[in-house]
Amino acid sequence: SDLKIMKWIQAPECKRPKITFLDFDMGKTCNLYYVSLRYENYEEERIYCGTDIKPGMSFTSTTSEIIMYTSKGRNDRNGWCAEVDFEDIPGCFQNKGISTNVAATNSDCPGPYNSSSGYFISPNYPGKYHADVDLKWILNFPCHYTILFELVIFDIEANSQCAFDYLDIRDGTNTKSYRYCGYYLRHHLKFDNHKLTIKFITDSSVQNFGFNITWTAKTAVCDPVCLNGQCTSRYICSCSPGWMGNLCDI
User: Fold this and answer.
1) pTM score, two decimals?
2) b/e for 19-35, b at 16 or more Cβ within 10 A?
3) Contact yes or no for 237/248 (Cβ under 8 A)
4) Please, what's the b/e burial string for 139-157 (b: 16 or more CB within 10 A of its CB; e: otherwise)?
5) Residue 238 to residues 157, 222, 242, 248: CA-CA distances in angstroms?
6) Is residue 203 part of a domain?
């Protein structure tokens, strides 16, 4: 029968994957028998079939990931065999990991944060996450910060209501909650609140491959610029006494 396999290879931090083919013998028709590689641009793939790849030929990603897809129909070809190594990324310095909440100078706005970026990974990542997980992270920055997320890879049991396994992101006031499940690749999120509580919840039924999420905290910049007032964390001008209007210019 036909064989279709997708393999997502992610290197450790500050490494990039290198695939070396030891053998490659696929069918000559690329629309039936092939190996495709994606790394620089996930929308573009490089397809190889027949004897396109010679033994010993290597492919090194310019990023930390390679997505590899194989389609092999019924034929008498041997297929392929490859090994994976991880090379250092020049000039890369390892992230210290997940930063959590730090002591606050008051109940609303914390003092200087010890890192402006970090990441979250699901338990056992890049393997399948465990059943009955209940994890929580807290990000808390000064009031004029916004927080950006990139869902590098996100694979959680899909459900229209995200009722079983999900990632719940809640703002500091608990007035807004965003729940995510399903599959995302290189998906970006932006939160205009300086404090977020992130919870990862799973049940005991289905376990997928989980997630790798990077986050960055940035100082909010008002647009338009406030003329006679202050910029709040939601990009709104808070006018000084005696001034009004969107730009505090009336």
Assistant:
1) 0.51
2) bebeebbbbeebeebbb
3) yes
4) bbbbbbbbbebbbbbbbbb
5) 42, 11, 12, 8
6) yes
Find the CATH number of the domain harbouring 168. Answer: 2.60.120.290
Q: Which of 212, 231, 195, 181 is nearest to 119 (CA)?
A: 212
* Per-residue pLDDT tens over the stretch 10-52: 777 778 889 999 999 888 888 778 888 887 555 567 899 888 9
The span from the CA of 250 to the CA of 244, in Å, is 5
What is the residue type of 74? R
Q: Are residues 126 and 212 in the same domain?
A: yes
Backbone angles phi, psi at 157, to 5 degrees: -40, 125
SS3 of 178, please? Answer: strand
* pLDDT digits 0-9 by tens, 141-150: 877 788 889 8
Do the Cβ atoms of 2 and 74 come closer than 8 Å?
A: yes
